[in-house]
TrEMBL record:
GO terms for molecular function: transferase activity. It comes from the Bacteria. The keyword Transferase applies. It holds the Pfam family Hexapep. InterPro entries: Hexapep, Transf_Hexapept/Carb_Anhydrase, Trimer_LpxA-like_sf. It comes from Prosthecochloris marina. The keyword Chaperone does not apply. This is Transferase. Keywords: Transferase.
Length: 205
């Protein structure tokens, strides 16, 4: 399903494929021979999403951008099932495995791998060819990689990155769930005016 959001519509290369129950919404560009598979959600809200050529976005993956963070994916990348990729830059030939998460402002250089349930935190830069092991966490610039039970070491690097300010525009000391959800409610209300566009797979009668 292709959806126009705030006057901006997806641009899908004629050789690309978007599954009938995938959603591509807003200012999204999908390149040559890329495949957006069943249940995937590619949602641009105030920022753009670019997916390069010969990319595979697997079932139920979620790709998002926001007014603060565009999402850019290079060529020949694979985004695995049930992943979450938000407002980051992914260079060519990157593999992101099932259940992984890559957060706002992160940068994965060419040939990185984020294995099953791996996490790349806010503003983290992963060097070319680096691997995030199964379930491990990358944080910082340059990235340091920790097992998930090392919360204190992760938090020491993560806290100054100020997730509430970077993602929601609210200083950490002022952030609470009322302010965050109220702001998101306003932003997401813009979807009321969305319109469904003709799928690029539909044939003219």
């Amino acid at each position: 399903m292709l959806i126009s959001h705030q006057g901006k519509s997806p641009v899908i290369h004629p050789t690309a494929y978007v599954a009938p129950n995938a959603v591509v919404c807003g200012e999204v560009t999908i390149g040559e021979n890329s495949r957006i598979l069943f249940g995937a959600q590619v949602i641009a809200e105030g920022g753009s999403i670019q997916v390069g050529s010969e990319c595979i976005v697997m079932e139920n993956a979620v790709l998002r951008s926001s007014s603060r963070h565009d999402l850019k994916i290079g060529n020949n990348c694979l985004i695995g099932p049930n992943t979450h990729v938000a407002g980051c830059t992914i260079d060519n030939e990157v593999f992101i495995a099932t259940g992984a998460a890559v957060f706002h402002g992160a940068h994965l250089e060419k040939g990185c791998e984020v294995r099953v349930n791996g996490v790349v935190h806010l503003k983290t830069k992963v060097s070319a060819g680096k691997t995030i092991p199964i379930g491990w966490v990358a944080v910082g610039d340059p990235a340091r990689i920790f097992p998930p039970d090392k919360h204190q070491q992760i938090w020491k690097i993560q806290e100054p990155l100020n997730f509430p300010l970077s993602v929601y525009g609210i200083e950490r000391q002022e952030a609470d769930m009322i302010k965050i959800t109220r702001q998101l409610s306003t932003v997401l209300d813009f979807h009321r005016d969305d319109t469904i566009k003709k799928s690029n797979q539909d044939k003219e009668p």
